[in-house]
Write a structure and sequence with these properties.
Elements lengths: L2 H7 L6 E5 L2 H24 L9 H6 L13 H8 L1 H23 L5 H20 L12 H28 L4 H4 L1 H26 L11 H18 L1 H13 L3 E5 L1
């Protein structure tokens, strides 16, 4: 198409095509998430006036978990300003991740059940991403349940993304260790178990019917802290590493504007 015909038809005389691997978006999102918590940690340790033992989280759990890094000023405001550096790329990742699964399904490279799972998870994932910002709306000092629910949604979100990715990467033979299905199933079983227990124990506290006595029992407190730390490793560093590896193994995605 030349410039003259473009003027006549009113159509643009150019096309934009971008080929990339959606995993780069997840890497950017996770780096943004880690950066937000690091800034929250620095601000909480240096500028937050409240004593660590005086927080609502400490009174409920017997220790301050990662949420406490975002809860108090000035960390609360600064962390909320940094949230889009996780939120926006992760929304884009979820969208393009679904599109590549959809394309693979139409090309018969993934089974129907993988596509159905991705289609069912897609709107839920988008909602859980944007609802995470509610942690900055409700202070745990005012309503711990309202503050904690978005974090539970965040835990569920990361599990759903991991589950649909396991289905997709296995189908396109891009799992680690030569597409080792046993490793993938083992990881998903561990992640699902840890996620379920974290949500169960955390929500029981939020609903004022704690299953574990983490305040008075040092052993139960250590168990829950260890469980929470294991969840973090499974839900953040492991997928971040896998995304880096998938950049070399999984198919790219082409986005075109004509």
């Amino acid at each position: 198409m030349d410039a003259h015909s473009s003027e006549v038809t009113g159509a643009p005389n150019y096309a934009l095509s971008l080929t990339f691997n959606p995993e780069i978006l997840r890497i950017v999102a996770y780096v943004g998430l880690i950066f937000m918590f690091l800034v929250g940690l620095i601000l909480t340790e240096t500028l937050v006036a409240i004593e660590p033992h005086d927080t609502a989280i400490y009174r409920l759990f017997g220790f301050n978990h990662s949420c406490n890094l975002l809860d108090h000023e000035p960390s609360r405001t600064v962390s909320a300003m940094l949230l889009p550096f996780w939120e926006i790329p992760f929304v884009l990742y979820v969208i393009f991740n679904f599109l590549r699964i959809n394309d693979a399904y139409r090309e018969r490279r993934v089974p129907r059940y993988a596509f159905v799972a991705a289609a069912a998870f897609f709107p839920v994932e988008l909602l859980l991403i944007v609802w995470f910002r509610i942690v900055f709306v409700w202070s745990p000092e005012v309503s711990f349940l309202a503050h904690y629910l978005p974090y539970v949604g965040f835990q569920l979100l990361l599990f759903l993304v991991a589950f649909e990715n396991a289905l997709y990467f296995h189908a396109v033979k891009a799992l680690p260790f030569n597409n080792n299905r046993t490793v993938a199933v083992g990881y998903m079983l561990l992640l699902s178990t840890v996620t379920f227990l974290c949500i169960l124990f955390g929500m029981s506290v939020a609903l004022e019917a704690p299953i574990l006595d983490t305040v008075n029992s040092a052993g139960q407190r250590l168990f829950f802290r260890s469980l929470s730390n294991l969840y973090f490793v499974l839900a953040v560093p492991v997928p971040l590493t896998l995304s880096w590896l998938e950049m070399k193994r999984s198919p790219t995605h082409t986005l075109s504007f004509a």
